[in-house]
Amino acid sequence: MSNEKKKKLTPEAQEYQGFQKKREVKRPILKNCLKAFFVGGFICIIGQVITTFYIHNFNFTEQTAGNPTTATLIFITMLLTGFGIYDRIGQFAGAGSAVPVTGFGNAVIASAIEYRTEGFVLGVGGNMLKLAGPVIVYGVFSAFVVALIKTILTQWGGF
Q1: How far apart are CA 124 and CA 133, in angstroms?
Q2: Is residue 139 domain-shared with residue 75, that is, in the same domain?
């Protein structure tokens, strides 16, 4: 907390801030970053193995193998989430499991599992994209803005 904000607090609140700071659990930032890096990297290695599998066995190109690879990773994540395994991976790795596309798959499936008791239409269908919906909206909007900027630069800038 900044000194300006501390001056505005009452003496009791300032004392409580000091009390809280002494007892705050120190997080192992470097350890957490390393776990996230290695688990996220391992997920990416699995994705690369799947891509190579599609290229060699189904005659995909590097460009066309991306979509089935993404779908396969999301399917594997759905299975692991359904069996409760991906939650343990997420607790261990933190952002390392949330940042790749598998984190998106986990968010969708976890919401679907949570609301399954309310029925398929209103429960699963209505709540499945509650968490992932904003990601989709902002992703599509960001892609539109980037494509618009690229189009403008290409047309007027000669790039």
Answers
A1: 14
A2: no
